[in-house]
Amino acid sequence: MNKKAIGLLSGGLDSTLAVGLMLDLGIEVITLNFVSPFCTCTSKNAGCKSQAVKVADRFGIKIRSVYMGQEYISMVANPKYGYGRNLNPCLDCRVMMFKKAKDIMMEEGASFIFTGEVLGQRPMSQRRDAMNIIERDSGLKGLILRPLSAKHFEPTIPEKKGIVDRDRLLDLRGRSRKGQIKLAEDMGINDYPCASGGCLLTEYNFAKRMKDLIDNMKIPAVNDAKFLRVGRHFRIDKDCKVIVGRDSNENERLERLAGSEDYLFAVEGYNGPVVVMRGTAKDEFIPITSRITVRYSDAPKDENVPVNYKKKIDGSFYTVYVNAIEDEMLEKIRI
Predict the structure, then answer these.
(1) What's the chain's average pLDDT?
(2) Domains and CATH numbers, the chain
(3) pLDDT tens for residues 251-307?
(4) I need a labelling partner for 129 at 20 to 30 A (CA). Which of 179, 269, 285, 304 fits?
(5) Which residues are paired to 50 by β-bridges?
């Protein structure tokens, strides 16, 4: 066993401290930053991904970004250990991450994995029994070191073999972050803007949209999940939903996300949203989608106005004349 380890680095305070501790112990560290379609802080210039890179640069260590796409969506649709308060499959998520980390550990010739997890900090994935399940299912028994809470666990293999000095590991636990903040001050770390664990599946409204998607599709695709971040959503039929842009940025994004078989709607002659109709496009759904389009435009609500629509793959527009859908009917189909 060598002194080379894989560290899971979100860019948050806990994982940053764990990296600092391991480097102080003379461990050669390679970090992994995991990204999924449900991360809340993965914009190009800010957020956890960017912060993780900053942390790696600060310490002068290698970082690898690991994207979990369709396989992650499939796991969310059918998690072995179920969900948390909303639609967050935290145990299954951690197992998947550690399995990938194990593969990279072997690829990089490292000996063990460490994380910034703190016992008792998160209700679903950081209970002792949950941590044991994650360790077992990922095939990493004795090879996951949690330096911030190590004194609350049995020694790991690298500790037993003297690769890591257990006496210099910590005994933090619970949801208070006072210990971490004090340690950060001692280490001179004062830039940690993104708390770890930023997952849209823990948010009620987003989870409701994702559940609707799972209920109406056998296995959603990554692009289906990307739509959930944008606009207002309405379920017209089991096989058909409508998404309405809320501003110019969302209108542009919806046009980019729309697939070749999706329909695009816009009111002619008035400012208004881009509207996407997805799924099985039946002629009977065109009028109601058009009426939704009018409802969110600047057009008069009680007059028939022209709404242009087309399949994205085609170049030709078609036009229907409709008035706005009633709010009462709209609320019945809102997701």
Answers:
(1) 93
(2) 4-187 (3.40.50.620), 230-333 (no CATH)
(3) 999 999 999 999 999 999 999 999 999 987 678 899 999 999 999 999 999 999 999
(4) 179
(5) none
